[in-house]
Amino acid sequence: MPQRTSNKVKVYLRTRPTNNFASDIISFGRDNRTVTIHRAPSANTVVDNNVTDWSFHLDGLFHNVNQEEIFNAVAKDVIDRSLDGYNGTIMCYGQTGAGKTHTMTGFSESYPNRGIIPRALQHIYQEINSRQDYSYSIRIAYLEIYNDQMCDLLRTVDTPNDLIQQQLSIGEDRGLVYVKGLSYRIANSEEEALNLLFEGETSRSIGQHILNKQSSRSHCIFTLLIECRSILASDEKYTVSKLNLVDLAGSERLAKTNSQGIAQREATFINKSLSFLEQAVLNLSDKKTNTVHFRSSKLTHALKDSIGGRCNTVMIANVWPETQHLEETVSTLRFASRMMCVPAEPAVNEVVDPIKAVENYKKENKYLREELALHDTLHGNRSGISYEPLSEQQLYEIENQCRRFIDGSLDELEIKNVRQVQAVFNTLKNICKSTDGEVEKKYRERYVLMDKNEYDQTDGQKARYTVAGTNQNDNSTGELDGQGFGSGNAPKDARTSKDQLLKMTKNKRGVKASVQRYVSKLGSVNVKPTLKRNTTEEEQMSRLKDSRESTDVYYGPPETGAKEQTQPSTPPTRNVAFEEFRQTRGSNLNAIYQENKDIMLAKKKQFAELARRINQTKGDIDKTRMDAERKKNERLNLGEFTNENGETIIDEEEYELISKLQELKANYRVDFDNWKTLKSEIAYCQNLVNQCQQRLIQEFDSWFNDSYLSTNKDTRSANGLGKTNQFQVYEDAAERFERMQKELLMSDLDMFFLVTQVRLERLKIKTRSSAFDTKKRLETHAMQDLWYEDGINETQPDAFM
Ligand SMILES: Nc1ncnc2c1ncn2[C@@H]1O[C@H](COP(=O)(O)OP(=O)(O)OP(=O)(O)O)[C@@H](O)[C@H]1O
């Protein structure tokens, strides 16, 4: 019999043997696939508009054939493929009495007339025994659906039927349908399997009506779960297939069967469930329909994964080919034709055994490690490298290295293997995360944060700060408790004016130290963890020199886009912002300022050293002069000696004293000239430093306005140096700079102590120097001012010629 090549459900016709075969109505084509039905027009009517001819093309016809032929032609292939891992379904459909149960189960007493199920069991176990390379496990379930209620025909416990039915329910897992609570009995042999079949058969619901004395009043699904594993290969994959052998209850016309009472009710359920099945098949066969209502009945739900799709499905359409059953025959053939349109793409159900998979992965891992070790040995210097997972200690060391790398005390991270690289990246990520969290926490402690875009929609700078707890009455949605980022508009009375802001800022000095710590953290927020460390100070200096030489140094306002990416939603205090400015936008100018200051400090040191030397020389001169005077007086007391030219003769000691005195005076003059030159240079440097200070302040004001206060980008660029802020109302640039420096210094207790110490020293010096004459005091004070202005505490010159 030629097979259809299309991937659809296969459908075969089987006729029940009868002596009243409607040969004038039903004819079979020579291809053994075509059924033609010709009904004579009704003799009682003048015009018969009903269709009188039908032709159905199926996958095969079995007219008056025995059970073996049906099994071999229809069932055997599906069963063989189920042993290969494919799901399979063999289903009998037709009117009551058409021979469905006969086809599926057959006469249990008559061995030659046994049906598909017992033959399938025999074939399966014979086939399993012949497949020596595989181990099979067969489990059997027998489900009955009676009046749309499920019943376990193989239940072992003697439980009341109602309770059993309640315990059964249909579930789905990744497209596979299963009945929860249904017992699956292991059958290790054909005999055990047949016993289960007989056991289930005895529990089936059977009734009697005119057309069938032993009519099945239920749908029965005999299921074999077949698990197949390869014995030879240590493959973690194995197959689990489900073979459903379905004997549907037969549709019946109540007018013909005369069923009443219970039988009538049963017939109603049967017909209803078959209608749902037909509807499901209709939808499955229609490509345009996406939805199939399988849950309409227990039958369709239980067969959801057993009709077409991944399942190898075969249907036998049983017909009773007598004239009186013509309508049922046509109806069955129509359903058969529809079933033939249901697509089927059978696929093997492979399952991965997790235990086996782990075993295989371990083996492969071991093999790869050995390969790697061999490779490292052959390629020289990688022989000492370990590929084991990193220990706690190693991870701790990596974290230390990363932290040192970030703060610049470690130049580069040594890369050893992939595990270490991953650990480095993870550590850097964690550091970034924790730093982000700390910064956010600090912000939350101090500010009510709000989105900058939202701020721009409000009326400018007034809404920059909001006061916790003042948003009481309107419909704004901003968070004002300081615990989260605000997402709404603060009411106007909750906004703080610039004056209030100034007060707030000043009142925050108590937390200055924490702000300082915050500033250092803030710096690390923007650090992107890379394997290249930050530029060294030398590199920065050389870059600074280059930029100064190139005359196009840019000290202007920041590029808006770049700033807005890193800008917090709420402005920091000016001191914090000033520190940030010095690190970022004002770094070049700050570097020049620092350079000038360093030069000035160096000169001041030189100046102090020179002063100390001058004082020393002065002391030597005084002493030498006194010695020389003493010697001269001694000589005069002894009487003067002169040579023939009348010149006074002195002794050697006096001569040396005089020579030394002259030498000291000469040195003194040189040093004093240098001292005066140095003094001018220091004054010049001081001017440069002052200029830089002023410039820094101006640039910072402009930057701060553009970055945090100004909302009008056009006007801020037009302003050049930026708008006048609240500080400029009260202070000039130098005062502001000094105040900010002091505030920063005051934030650190050590620095406070240092400043106090310097001031005390300065006081002492002033007291001492008050005893000097006016000229000396003026000179000394000038030097002291220069020495101590930056905290230099050197010995001051206390005497001048
Ligand atoms: N191919 C066949 N060869 C011999 N007897 C048959 C055949 N088909 C059906 N019969 C007989 O017809 C009668 C009804 O068959 P069967 O019970 O299998 O029908 P059914 O379709 O299952 O009906 P129901 O739906 O009511 O259960 C039985 O006595 C059976 O022996």
From TrEMBL:
Its main location: cytoplasm. PROSITE patterns: KINESIN_MOTOR_1 (PS00411), KINESIN_MOTOR_2 (PS50067). Residues 534-551 have a biased composition (Basic and acidic residues). Residues 8-342 form the Kinesin motor domain. SMART domains: KISc. GO terms for molecular function: ATP binding; microtubule binding; microtubule motor activity. GO terms for biological process: microtubule-based movement. InterPro entries: KIF6/9_C (IPR056524), Kinesin-like_fam (IPR027640), Kinesin_motor_CS (IPR019821), Kinesin_motor_dom (IPR001752), Kinesin_motor_dom_sf (IPR036961), P-loop_NTPase (IPR027417). Gene3D superfamilies: Kinesin motor domain. Keywords: ATP-binding, Coiled coil, Cytoplasm, Cytoskeleton, Microtubule, Motor protein, Nucleotide-binding. It is found in: Cytoplasm, Cytoskeleton. ATP binds at G94, Q95, T96, G97, A98, G99, K100, T101. Residues 469-498, 530-573 are annotated as: Disordered. GO terms for cellular component: microtubule. Pfam families: KIF9, Kinesin. Residues 469-478 have a biased composition (Polar residues). Belongs to the TRAFAC class myosin-kinesin ATPase superfamily. Kinesin family. This is Kinesin-like protein. The lineage of its organism: Eukaryota, Metazoa, Spiralia, Gnathifera, Rotifera.
